[in-house]
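Hello forum,

I keep getting stuck at the same step: I have a sequence, I want structure tokens, and every attempt I make locally crashes halfway through. Rather than fight my setup again tonight, could one of you with a working pipeline run this one for me? It's a single chain of 185 residues.
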Amino acid sequence: MEDIVPELQGLCPIADPLERRLYFAAILTKALGREGKHLIVVGGQALQFYTAGAYATADIDFVCPAADKLSEILSTWGFRRQGRHWQHDALELLVEVPGETLAGDPARITEVEIHGLSAQIIGIEDLILDGLRAAVHWRSEEDRYWASNLINANYQTLDWDYLRSQAEANSTARLLAELEAQARA
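Reply #2:
Ran it on my machine without issues. Output:
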């Protein structure tokens, strides 16, 4: 794979898609330097992480306030822009940056160490809240299913006070209460 820049060569031998994408996130975080502390994995890739691969996704979603610098790095690394995505065919990576700021509490971010680097992932409670919003406001049954899955798998360790207060604030408290009751049953 001679068309892959040296920074990304370490991705080539990694077969597991989750590990490969998280390591890519860590490499990108390092490349962004100071701005890298604000690069956060969100969306399907975060869901894939928290479900240990039970959810599968084809792309990596990031929030990053340094969008211009991020675009410059991706372009330099051989990614090409295709609509809202950045694509690298040889590495089979697809990147999207749907926003600049995290919809959630930055103090709840999960930091993952991988191959000597680190990547940041949206906190599990904020990912659940995102799923609840999609389920209620867009009537997404898939998002409801995955929010329920996360609640069931992590019931004992979730910050229920935070979940309840945030769900109350975004009109998803009723669904959260329903999913909580199901998880307790």
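The two ends are 52 Å apart (CA to CA). If your local run keeps crashing, start a new thread with the error log.
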